[in-house]
Amino acid sequence: MAAPEAPEEKFSLREVLDTFKLCLSGDKEVYVEHYVAGWRGLIKFLNSLGSVFGFISKDAVNKIKILVTHLEGENSSEYVTVQSMVKYELENELVDLNKRGNHPESGCRTLLRLHRALRWLELFLERLRTSGEDGKTSVMCAEAYNESLSRHHPWVVRKAAGMAFCVLPGRPAFFEVMNVGTPEQVVAMLGDALPLISEVYQVTEELYAQHNLLDLP
Ligand SMILES: CCCCCCCCCCCCC/C=C/[C@@H](O)[C@H](COP(=O)(O)O)NC(=O)CCCCCCCCCCCCCCC
Prior knowledge:
Blueprint: H1 13-23, H2 32-48, H3 54-72, H4 82-91, H5 107-130, H6 137-146, H7 155-166, H8 171-177, H9 183-210
Bound molecules: ligand 1PX.
Family: Belongs to the GLTP family.
Domain Glycolipid transfer protein: 31-179
Catalytic activity: N-(9Z-octadecenoyl)-sphing-4-enine-1-phosphate(in) = N-(9Z-octadecenoyl)-sphing-4-enine-1-phosphate(out); N-(hexadecanoyl)-sphing-4-enine-1-phosphate(in) = N-(hexadecanoyl)-sphing-4-enine-1-phosphate(out)
């Protein structure tokens, strides 16, 4: 059995919900700081599911580190919101637009990877929310993945992801790890969280579409 985690390391869905609430400013700009914090919370959840998911969490952690480097770097004021980041990086030609080159760690391409994963999360959580007691998390996860992220992944990543999904715990254990309370309370909280996640996704999607950034290499 795994050693118990330190309390501050424990995942809580409420915490993630709260960070996603903070993501959007009054005029619908997305704060990079809170976006990153939301992902950190989700990765805690992933880590608590076991080492099979290590290769996924490692990639997500790397992406977060890149964004934090921008957030804390000398141009930190340009990285306050996704909108200001896009403007700054495009105006200063800091993004590889057609093929990978001098800017493999641009904020724009890095955030795009997380943004695509956010769509997977939205689809997965919606399935989880509406599933019955004996719903299979592995199937919900695979379906959500096939409808979103998978098209951006090469065969070998799709294969590894598919294998990891198979060992996901069942719905009751999954709900337990969320640390919310009864299954009914989890479902209610998912109902609160989904519109927030969905709005952050939509705002980012529109911004990236406007600037033709949805296929950054
Ligand atoms: C709960 C089960 C979690 C399953 C996670 C589903 C997503 C599967 C993603 C598989 C990614 C495999 C790792 C490699 C990825 C990279 O190739 C690829 C491309 O990057 P590159 O252009 O720099 O090369 N990276 C990505 O697409 C970014 C993936 C980020 C995935 C983050 C997933 C976090 C999952 C958090 C789970 C939270 C569940 C919450 C329940 C309340």
